[in-house]
Amino acid sequence: MQLNRFIFLILLILSVLSGCKEKENKIESIEHFNKQHVTYLNEYGWSIERFASETNYAAGTLQSYEDHMNTIRTQGNVDLTPFIEEEVVETGYILNEKTDHYNQIVGYILESGENIVGGYLEFNHEVKQIDGIIRIDKGETTPMFNSNDMNEQSILGHIVIHNNNK
């Protein structure tokens, strides 16, 4: 009987120690965002939750993306015509902020060279389907504006969730 208790005690100690090793080896993922992008979005009162996308348009190729460039110009109020012959990078970030109408806001930043040449917002509704697949229903595309001015954008709703780090 004492031998059974001794074996149980040894097994218990080993399981506790092996559990501790797993925690020690656990790697935490930390995203580092482009500081210039963080500053740009913060100046408008927005904060980044996570990276969404990056698209690189080679010099001289913007005209091949006519529909997208028209949307950026007409709805996002960013004219990329002066950058037709330059490389343009479009980076999107899912923002921490949500509205009562849209549960996903994406902030897009447009750069040419080392300079930010503009930005716009896309308000979407993210839906998790029964099969587990996430569907994004695109909503409104707007010019970049200060999140504090959300109440003036009645079609978009009111911000309901803010980043606690603000």
List keywords for this structure.
166 residues, alpha+beta, five-stranded antiparallel sheet, 3 helices, 7 strands, 34% strand
Give a brief rundown of this model:
By secondary structure, the protein is an alpha+beta fold. It has helices spanning about 1-25, 35-45, 65-75, and strands at about 50-55, 90-95, 100, 105-110, 115-130, 135-145, 160. It is elongated, with a radius of gyration of 24 Å.
Calculate Rg over CA atoms.
24 Å
Strand content: 25-35%
Structural class: alpha+beta
Number of strands: 7
What can you see in these coordinates?
The chain is α+β, with helices and mostly antiparallel strands and 166 residues long. Helices cover 25% and strands 34% of the residues. The protein has three helices and seven strands, in the order H-H-E-H-E-E-E-E-E-E. The strands form two sheets. A five-stranded antiparallel beta sheet has the order 1-2-4-5-6, covered by helices on one side. A hairpin with a 5-residue loop joins strand 5 and strand 6. It is elongated, with a radius of gyration of 24 Å. The termini are far apart.
Topology, element by element:
Layout: H1 2-25, H2 35-43, E1 48-57, H3 66-74, E2 88-95, E3 98-99, E4 104-112, E5 115-128, E6 134-143, E7 159-161
Antiparallel strand pairs: 1-2, 2-4, 3-7, 4-5, 5-6
